[in-house]
Amino acid sequence: MKRARLIIITGLSGSGKTTAARSLEDEGFFVVDNLPLVLLPEFLKLHVCSGPGNSNVAVVVDVRNKPYLEGYRQTLDEIRSAGHLVDIFFFDSCEEVLIRRYSETRRRHPLSRKQGIAESIRQERALLSGIMDLATEIIDTSWLTPHQLRAKVVQMVAGDQKGIPLAVLVQSFGFRYGIPPGSDLVMDVRFLPNPHFVPDLRPYTGLSPGVRNFVLEQDACQEFLGRFRHLLDYLLPCYRREGKSYLTISIGCTGGRHRSVAIAEYLRHAIHGDNLVVEGVHRDVAKE
């Protein structure tokens, strides 16, 4: 019988369980939120027997299913006796931070009725104390940013693997048509001589050898590319460590047809590194 790798995501409300679940989903896990524990053994049986596919499963279990928490030890024993590999990730945070998070989001604590948030947090911690004692990993998210939390979760599940790659999009654009939305890094290359004013080059784009050579062979461009590549060599690993999955680098010139296209094409081929996927697009190259 096929076995599953199961990660139970549990812990205090507001401690980052949703962020963790989304991180695991990005890593290829089949994620189920708020599944009653008593249904978990049958769910795993159906999931792994449904045919070839993903055997990595993550389930979020918390006090929203308060009645089902009572039999968790028996349920876990049943799952492990079936041969499944089980890890319990318990997410915790200090009371002060949890209260602030609830205040900022204006959400209701799942246990709050007449008592305040602080009392609800203490009651929840008591209800989850038994599961916390069995946890494989206890993650204190008090001072972690969402990106740092995501990176930590990916690191825990990937082990020696590198996890999901950083997808880098290098795009050219024309300032005449506006900066592309979603740009992480924007570089203005209008300081370089413009092929638009060279009659023999004007009809062509930065994809043509003549325009490309005109732009790239200038001393100023060579110095710029050397400095910018050093900056990217520093920045890309930093973005990766922060858990960023996508990075958009936008290179702009006046019309988005000559200088920015040539430089974006150069960078698309020049950027490389471990666990990077680099693609390119020229937004305005077809515009007159």
Automatic annotation (TrEMBL):
GO terms for molecular function: ATP binding; GTP binding. GTP binds at residues 62-65. Residues 6-161 form the RapZ-like N-terminal domain. It holds the Pfam family RapZ-like_N. ATP binds at residues 11-18. Residues 167-285 form the RapZ C-terminal domain. Gene3D superfamilies: P-loop containing nucleotide triphosphate hydrolases (3.40.50.300). Keywords: ATP-binding, GTP-binding, Nucleotide-binding. InterPro entries: P-loop_NTPase (IPR027417), RapZ-like (IPR005337), RapZ-like_N (IPR053930), RapZ_C (IPR053931). NCBIfam families: PRK05416.1. This is RNase adaptor protein RapZ. The lineage of its organism: Bacteria, Pseudomonadati, Thermodesulfobacteriota, Desulfuromonadia, Desulfuromonadales.
